[in-house]
Design brief:
The protein is about 25% helix and about 15% strand. The chain has about 240 residues and is α/β, with parallel strands linked by helices. The chain has a five-stranded parallel sheet, with helices on both faces. α5 (about 140-155) links the parallel β5 (about 130-135) and β6.
Length: about 240
């Protein structure tokens, strides 16, 4: 079986791109490749995602028996951050997502929306230029979902490149571009004007990986638009 075959997708600083597809289309595989969790069997991610990406997995992956602050401090140590930097940035992030009053609450005692906000804060703690979120609002109530998307738009305005996967098209309301992924092929369309295979733009080139799942793997070809051969800014 081949997964995410021939995918060619760019995400630029300052925009939110939503990848929409049915279950089994390869959205999570693509997100893991973009975050460096999986290694592609063909193709590549540009730039190298290691150490440069904030990743929020589809399933809550923090420690429920640690408090909100202890989770942040733990991730800060993993990122090699100084204690004073964790204190300053962690406090800022918790205030930003509205969790500062709950810093001493166990993560397992948080509501679904609050858990996702904590996971977002942990993903942003080391100030990555790229943010990858795999179905971040699944099972979250409408109010918390709206608040979460407002936070993502603020992150994009701050200059981050944000890629979000989802199975629901209505979730993409308010994003900058939408890419449709239909297993096992590449994204076909975008709300921002697209080439036949590349989701999103004309005049630039980028590379996305192919990955094998239970099989030999898939390739990703380099696509070029009608403009110059390099894209301004950071490309995912």
């Amino acid at each position: 079986m081949r997964a995410v075959e021939g995918v060619d997708l760019a995400v630029f600083p300052g925009e939110v791109v939503v990848l929409v597809g049915p279950d089994g289309a390869g959205k999570t595989t693509l997100a893991r490749l973009a975050a460096g969790v999986l290694a592609p069997t063909a193709g590549r991610v540009v730039p190298d995602p290691r150490g440069r990406v904030g990743y929020l997995a589809a399933r809550f992956s923090l420690y429920p028996d640690l408090t909100v602050w202890e989770n942040l401090a733990f991730f800060g140590r993993l990122y090699g951050m100084a204690t004073r930097d964790v204190e300053a940035e962690g406090t800022r992030l918790l205030e930003w997502v509205g969790l500062l009053p709950f810093r001493d609450r166990l993560a397992g005692a948080l509501s679904g929306g609050m858990r996702q906000k904590l996971a977002l804060a942990c993903a942003l703690l080391h100030r990555p230029p790229v943010l990858v979120l795999d179905e971040p609002t699944t099972g979250v109530d409408p109010v918390a979902r709206a608040e979460f998307w407002q936070l993502l738009r603020e992150e994009a305005r701050a200059g981050r490149a944000v890629l979000v996967t989802t199975s629901y098209l209505d979730v993409a309301v308010g994003c900058d571009r939408v890419a449709l992924l239909w297993w096992p092929r590449a994204p076909r369309r975008s709300c921002g004007g697209s080439t036949a295979r590349a989701a999103g733009w004309t005049g630039c080139s980028s590379t996305w990986p192919g990955a094998g799942e239970n099989g030999p793997g898939a390739g990703a070809n380099r696509k070029k638009g009608s403009g110059p051969g390099r894209c301004p800014g950071r490309v995912l």
